[in-house]
Amino acid sequence: MGVARAFKVVMCGDGGVGKTSLVSRLVGAGFNPLQKLTVGVSHHTKELNLGDSPTRLVVWDLGGEERFRFLAPVFLRGAKGAIFVFDVTREETFEHLDEWLEVVIQTIGDIPRVLVGNKVDLEGLRVIPSNYAERYAKSKGYLAYYEVSARLSSNVEEPFIRLAKAILGCDHGG
Ligand code: G3D
Ligand code: MG
């Protein structure tokens, strides 16, 4: 075992899409017990065993998303990867992804990123089809698109693992 490597990863996306819920699930804190209306920035660490040395993701989550453009430089500085989240039941959260991506690229450049469609447990309320989001993700340079549910704890770790592998440079498309 080598020395643990730590990478900063940022959660991007509109308020209410489930960013805090996903981070809460990721770190094993259950569904949504983390502070609901995140004030300022919170960070949570997740240990992953990838390859031959432990990897620590430090996941940054931002509350008060309307202040994002103002806080972007501080929030994004040093980020090695980004998770972009939208809500498959709310079209505007998908439409705003372009703006989120623009701010990230302008502020810190073209970092590895994955796209996450959350709340797939609400299948009857879905307005963004899976293949549509998939095509969008490809066209915008995302590593991959994942459909997840923080509520059901379904598929939550996969996007983070994919991102961590890409950051480590040991990503061979698996
Ligand atoms: P945010 O951090 O992106 O602002 P939150 O989003 O994690 O605070 O979640 C916003 C609301 O969506 C919460 O509901 C939360 O319970 C709900 N939510 C998060 N993930 C899921 C999911 O996978 N499925 C469903 N059905 N709901 C989810 P409230 O009502 O507490 O505001
Ligand atoms: Mg939040």
Reconstruct the topology from this structure.
Elements: E1 5-12, H1 19-26, E2 41-50, E3 53-62, H2 68-76, E4 81-87, H3 91-95, H4 97-108, E5 113-118, H5 130-139, E6 145-147, H6 157-168
Parallel strand pairs: 1-3, 1-4, 4-5, 5-6
Antiparallel strand pairs: 2-3
Helix pairs in contact: 2-4
This protein binds guanosine-3'-monophosphate-5'-diphosphate and magnesium ion.
Guanosine-3'-monophosphate-5'-diphosphate binds next to helix 1.
Beta strand count = 6
Instruction: Assign the CATH superfamily.
Output: P-loop containing nucleotide triphosphate hydrolases
Number of helices: 6
Bulk shape: globular
How are strands sequenced across the largest beta sheet? 2-3-1-4-5-6
Structure explained in plain terms:
This protein has 174 residues and is an alpha/beta fold. The protein has one domain (5-168): Rossmann fold (3-Layer(aba) Sandwich), CATH 3.40.50. Helices cover 32% and strands 25% of the residues. The protein contains six helices and six strands. A six-stranded mixed sheet has the order 2-3-1-4-5-6, sandwiched between helices. Residues 19-20, 38, 61, 63 line the site of magnesium ion.
